UniProtKB/TrEMBL annotation:
Keywords of this entry: Hydrolase, Protease, Serine protease
UniProt-listed Gene3D superfamilies: 2-enoyl-CoA Hydratase, Chain A, domain 1, 2.30.42.10, 3.30.750.44
UniProt cross-references to NCBIfam families, sorted A to Z: prc (TIGR00225)
Source organism superkingdom: Bacteria
MF terms in GO: endopeptidase activity; serine-type peptidase activity
Protein name: PDZ domain-containing protein
Biological-process GO terms, alphabetical: proteolysis; signal transduction
Keyword NADP: no
InterPro entries: ClpP/crotonase-like_dom_sf, CtpA/B_N, PDZ, PDZ_sf, Peptidase_S41A, Tail-specific_protease
Amino acid sequence: MVRKKITKILLILSIAIFLFGLGFRFSEYKNRISGVDRLNTAILNDSNQPTIDKKNLDFALFWEVWNELEKKFIDKSKIETQKMFYGAIKGMVSSLEDPYTFFLTPEENKEAKNDLAGKFEGIGAQLGLQDNRIVIVAPLKNSPAQKANVHAGDYINKVDDQSTKGWTLPQAVSKIRGPKGTKVNLMLERDSKEFQVEIIRDQIIVESVELNYEKKGNQSFAYLKLNQFGDNTNDEWDKSTDEVARKWRNGEIKGLVLDLRDNPGGYLESSVYLASEFLPLGKQIVKQTSTIQEEKIYDVQRRGRLLDIPLIVLINKGSASASEILAGALRDYNRAKLVGEKSFGKGSVQEATNLSEGAGLHITVAKWILPKGDWINSKGIEPDIKVENKIKEGSSPSRETDTQLNKAIDQLIK
């Protein structure tokens, strides 16, 4: 079963695009360190650790700095050995200057695992990095963020009066998430103008798949909104597409709009599973290439239920990663027209590993290529029909203002 194959390869938007709701499955890692209280006296080695001589490194400077901080730093209450230890690891990982490769503390790792399960507490917004700035990829439907009029593309300049300059996504997540009922103040920037919003956190429950029906004149259309490629996506997808397939066979609907807007991605294998619903057996969906791993081809391995239904796919700047694989494959085989705005542009693959003490490490291990050879990293996918939803200042998006969806339905009627 496809789900059992989903163990470690993820497509994570912009440093992983943290959904405030993304979570991951991980493989085991056996490197263990026993006791932070021993950190200032020795490096604890095991067989997996690189030999210092090979690397030509002398850790004396590290411990010299550590000891000087312990002796001389003015605020002794801030000398937390565990926190300093994790900080040192984060610094090592961030020195690679790849925003998609990062270390997670046990607490951050636990939160990340919970996210793709679809339940967490926070403001309900997907975060990303753009030009090294924290940006709202998309507020979740009916979330506190959406109700506070937060929009996709808003930069977060401050969190509770703290500047976000130089922050990683895990830092931003840890500051913005919090228990239900608590408040967080965000200084946002939209169209070069700053404004502040206060948001009360709540429990966020994310459904991967939402199925509704649209009607124009005497014709009906299925509208399938895909929010993420998470733990429950394939099961929810099967349930919804069974219904769509039945209505299509019975002549109750004239086509399908697949909405990938503001979907930050998730599991690569899930994007392959969903693409297989619309493409013939054996068609290549995506190719994964790397200098450290063998090339891997993902193609259609099952018979889809919606091979002939007229299909329009909606994308925007919040469509990323696994969303771009799905949209790109359907575009490359002329299976669907893309309507909306250019997608985010995330073309790399991360391997997520469980470390000792519950910590985690995400490492960029490969890039993925669409069937016609496109690597869309930092470029995104251009829609066949460009349509922008224009929202009045002070207003929130609504069905009435969704010109992209209206255009998609018009294309199905043609």
